[in-house]
Amino acid sequence: MKFWYQQSWLQWLLLPFAWLFQLITYLRRKAYQTGIFASWRAPCPVVVVGNLSVGGNGKTPLVVCLVEQLQARGIKVGVISRGYGGENTDYPFLVCATSDPKKTGDEPVLIAKRTAAPVAISPNRQESIELLYKAYHPQVIISDDGLQHYKLQRDVELVVVDGERRFGNGLLLPAGPLRERPQQRLPTVDAVICNGGIAHEGEIAMTLAPDVAINLVTGEQRPLNQFSTVNAVAGIGHPPRFFATLQQQGLTLLTQHAFADHYAFQADDFAKIDNAEIPLLMTEKDAVKCTEFAKDNWWYVPVSAQIAPTQLAVLIDKIMSKVTQ
C-alpha cells in the first residue's frame, strides 16, 4: 500500500481499525506469554527470522546466510516456511530444489536450491518441524518469517528492518504496514538487522550484494559488469531496491517492470517486456517461477547477505550456544 509510506488522509480514516488491531495483537501475545493459550516447544532450537512490517524486508537472504554459516560449522539445519504464494493444499510438505514453486511458494524453493538444506512448508509450523525432525533430525530449525506466530516457542528472534523504508508511517495495520509496534517489540528480540539504508544505533547493518548473472536456460554465469543495457523485472516486496541494485552496478535499465510480491509469472506476462536482442534480468526469487518458459536472453541475479564478520560471528555464536552437538 503506497499510502503506508507517505502522508495520506486514508491512514487517519483507518486509524480506529489500527487501534483495534493493536489491542487484539497485545492481548494475543499476552495470552501466549501467560499460558492462557498453549504454545509448543520443538525438539531442537528454533531461530525465527521475521519482521514487524508487511512486505519483503530481506529475510530470505539472511536465512540463506545463516544456513550456510551453520552448515560450514557442521550443523544440520532445517528450514520451515509458511509457503506463502503457493497453491499446495497437502500439508506439511517437504520442498526440494526441483519442487514446483506454483505449489510451494517461491522462497522455499529458492532456499532449497541455494543451501540444499531440508525445507518444510505448512501454515502449521509445528507440523513442519515434526516432519523435518522425523525425516532429517536437524540440530536447529530456522523459520523464514513467523515472528508473530507465538504458538511456536523460539530460542532466538532476529528482526529484519528495511533500512530505506523503515516502518513507513509508523502505524499498525490497516492504517500502516506494521504488525507490532517497534517501540515495544524490538527491545525484546535478540538482534535487529538493518537491510540497506543507514543502520540505527544497536542495529546490525546488512547489504544485499550481487556478483553475477546466471542464465535461466544454460546456467552460464556472467559478471554483471559485462552487461550494459538491460530490461529488468521484479516481483518482490520492494522492486525499486532490485532496480537500484542493477543501476549501482553500472547497468542502464531500458525498462523496469514491477510486479506484486510472490507474483505467479506466466509466459504471457513477458510478451510486451521481452526483446530477444536485449538481456532481461530478474531476481532469483522470480527466476524459480520462470524456468519452464525462459528464453535464452533471460538472466537472474542472485544476491548474498553481507554482514560485517564480527557482527555475523555474534549472530552465529548466539545460535550455536543453543545447539546441542
Automatic annotation (TrEMBL):
Q: Which reaction does it catalyse?
A: a lipid A disaccharide + ATP = a lipid IVA + ADP + H(+)
Q: Give the residues annotated as coiled coil.
A: none
Ranges annotated as spanning the membrane:
none
One GO MF term: ATP binding
> Pathway, according to UniProt?
Glycolipid biosynthesis; lipid IV(A) biosynthesis; lipid IV(A) from (3R)-3-hydroxytetradecanoyl-[acyl-carrier-protein] and UDP-N-acetyl-alpha-D-glucosamine: step 6/6
GO terms for cellular component: plasma membrane
Keywords of the record, alphabetical order, are: ATP-binding, Kinase, Lipid A biosynthesis, Lipid biosynthesis, Lipid metabolism, Nucleotide-binding, Transferase
At the top of the EC hierarchy, this enzyme's class is transferase
GO BP, sorted A to Z:
lipid A biosynthetic process; lipopolysaccharide core region biosynthetic process
E.C. no: 2.7.1.130
**Which InterPro entries does the record cross-reference, listed alphabetically?**
LpxK, P-loop_NTPase
Chain positions recorded as ATP binding sites: S53, V54, G55, G56, N57, G58, K59, T60
Give the similarity note.
Belongs to the LpxK family.
Family annotation (PANTHER family): TETRAACYLDISACCHARIDE 4'-KINASE (PTHR42724), TETRAACYLDISACCHARIDE 4'-KINASE, MITOCHONDRIAL-RELATED (PTHR42724:SF1)
Q: What does this protein do?
A: Transfers the gamma-phosphate of ATP to the 4'-position of a tetraacyldisaccharide 1-phosphate intermediate (termed DS-1-P) to form tetraacyldisaccharide 1,4'-bis-phosphate (lipid IVA).
Q: What is this protein called?
A: Tetraacyldisaccharide 4'-kinase
